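re: the backbone from monday

yeah here it is again, tokenized this time
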């Protein structure tokens, strides 16, 4: 499912929110995927306006950023 959201961001130029493991921490971040291969993604970090690279296996979850408001998922009506 994570790969589907990463591809969605890449193809549609959309911002997504990911949760990933960095050392012993779990971090949430808004990104736009710019490039993707089998192991890594290159992204634009929306909050910092910097380019970053993530190892895909360290990404725990991904979802469209518009579905998240104050860290709560908005339910469809």
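seq for it, each position gets an aa:
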């Amino acid at each position: 499912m994570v790969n589907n959201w990463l591809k969605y961001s890449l193809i549609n130029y959309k911002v997504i929110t990911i949760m990933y493991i960095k050392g012993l921490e779990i971090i949430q971040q808004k990104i736009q995927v710019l490039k993707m291969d089998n192991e890594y993604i290159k992204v634009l970090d929306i909050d910092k306006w910097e380019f970053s690279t993530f190892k895909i296996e360290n990404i725990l979850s991904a979802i469209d950023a518009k579905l998240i408001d104050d860290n709560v998922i908005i339910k469809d009506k």
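The mean pLDDT is 89. The radius of gyration is 12 Å.
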